[in-house]
């Protein structure tokens, strides 16, 4: 029983991590499906809590140093799940300047090395009997139970009119829609907010061996517009009307290029497929107002249907490349 409980726990942890990661990567229907699966996996983990506690109690009677690692594993897992529930319900949205979703993610990342150690220290080897009818039935009951509890929790949020009922399908909460000044100011990891003079800032576009510099005044004359949602992985979203220049209008042909890289003055960058240029806007305003420094002034990328970390701020350069668009980490490393 202990072996199967540990194996089930490991598989559900992997499923929760994979679905949670995929849910953070996009802001489309795929995100909706993966985050539903993430919620089901989380509640299925809770279903294993009781049999796992019995395993833990037996393990604590053995005076071995590995029990402290096991306790750390349990604490991190419980804390991460608690913050996930606080975020999804909307009961608590922020703690010490960080969203509860950010705490949930940070604790989940801290759990990874501990979980790997736990899996190696208490290695559970699969057996052919694990694919037997009885084992598969038990697994189905655990996952099915997780799905039932997840559905019930979502219905409870709506019936009780809790804040979590109004979150977007990505799990994010509205914060500043149609009010650019109300949007949170967030940066990715090591970025700081630079102070840039719009009068002297230029965008450098390199394509096909040619280079062209654009001033902010020149870009503002395009006056292209798109209304779309900025959905941040920190757990908030905001819908605005963004104005600036469609990126494809700044490229004098793409030649044999396969991707384009959008770079920030801070060194941050993201790479996109060339054929996405017509859907990418280099924005100078939001909601009819010039961007402020915290939101990417004087120039930021607007990437509809992509999460906020794709929306490069303080854009200074765009360069076509022969590299494929996937030639980059799925999440920025700096």
Characterise the protein shown here.
With 334 residues, the chain is of the alpha+beta class. It has 2 domains: 170 residues, no CATH class; 142 residues, Sulfite Oxidase, Chain A, domain 2 (Alpha-Beta Complex). The protein is built from 7 helices and 13 strands. The strands form 3 sheets. Strands 3, 6, 7, 10, 11 and 12 form a 6-stranded mixed beta sheet that branches. It has a 5-stranded mixed beta sheet with strand order 5-4-13-8-9. Strand 8 and strand 9 form a beta hairpin. The radius of gyration is 23 Å and the shape is elongated. The model has no long low-confidence stretch (mean pLDDT 89).
The biggest beta sheet is recorded as: 6 strands, mixed
- Give the percentage of residues in beta strands: 15-25%
Poorly predicted tracts of residues:
none
Radius of gyration: 23 Å
Total individual domains = 2
Structural class: alpha+beta
Q: Give the % helix.
A: 25-40%
Q: Overall 3D geometry?
A: elongated
In whole angstroms, the N-to-C terminal distance is: 44 Å
Kindly report the average pLDDT value.
89
Total DSSP helices: 7
Number of strands: 13
Order of H and E elements: HHHHEEHHEEEHEEEEEEEE
Characteristic key phrases:
334 residues; alpha+beta; Sulfite Oxidase, Chain A, domain 2; six-stranded mixed β-sheet; five-stranded mixed β-sheet; 40% helix; elongated
Fold topology:
Layout: H1 2-25, H2 29-47, H3 49-60, H4 66-89, E1 94-95, E2 98-99, H5 100-121, H6 133-159, E3 173-174, E4 202-207, E5 210-215, H7 216-220, E6 224-232, E7 236-246, E8 259-264, E9 269-273, E10 281-286, E11 289-290, E12 300-302, E13 315-321
Parallel strand pairs: 3-7, 4-13
Antiparallel strand pairs: 1-2, 4-5, 6-7, 7-10, 8-9, 8-13, 10-11, 10-12
Helix pairs in contact: 1-2, 1-3, 2-6, 4-5
């Amino acid at each position: 029983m202990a072996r199967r409980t540990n194996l089930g726990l490991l598989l559900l942890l992997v499923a929760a991590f994979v679905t949670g990661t995929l849910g953070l990567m996009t802001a489309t229907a795929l995100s909706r499906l993966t985050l539903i699966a993430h919620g089901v996996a989380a509640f299925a983990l809770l279903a294993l809590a009781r049999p796992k506690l019995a395993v833990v109690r037996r393990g604590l009677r053995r005076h071995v140093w590995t029990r402290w690692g096991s306790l750390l594993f349990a604490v991190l897992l419980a804390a991460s799940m608690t913050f996930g529930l606080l975020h999804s319900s909307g009961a608590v949205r922020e703690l010490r300047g960080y969203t509860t979703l950010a705490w949930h993610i940070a604790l989940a990342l801290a759990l990874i090395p501990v979980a790997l150690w736990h899996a190696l220290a208490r290695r559970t080897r699969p057996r052919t009997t694990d694919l037997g009818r009885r084992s598969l039935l038990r697994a189905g009951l655990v996952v099915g139970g997780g799905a039932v509890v997840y559905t019930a929790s979502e219905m409870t949020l709506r019936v009780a009119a809790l804040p979590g009922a109004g979150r977007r399908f990505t799990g994010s909460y509205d914060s500043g829609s149609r009010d650019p000044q109300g949007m949170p100011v967030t940066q990715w990891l090591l970025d700081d907010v630079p102070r840039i003079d719009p009068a002297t800032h230029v965008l450098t576009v390199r394509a096909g061996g040619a280079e062209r510099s654009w001033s902010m005044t020149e870009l503002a004359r395009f006056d292209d517009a798109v209304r779309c949602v900025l959905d941040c992985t920190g757990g908030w979203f905001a819908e605005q009307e963004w104005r600036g220049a469609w990126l494809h209008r700044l490229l004098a042909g793409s030649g044999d290029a396969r991707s384009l890289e959008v770079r920030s003055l801070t060194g941050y960058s993201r790479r996109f497929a060339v054929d996405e240029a017509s859907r990418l806007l280099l924005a100078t305003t939001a909601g009819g107002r010039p961007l402020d420094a915290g939101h990417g002034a004087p120039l930021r990328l607007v990437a509809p249907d992509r999460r906020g970390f794709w929306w490069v701020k303080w854009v200074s350069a765009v360069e076509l490349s022969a590299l494929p668009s996937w030639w980059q980490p799925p999440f920025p490393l700096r």
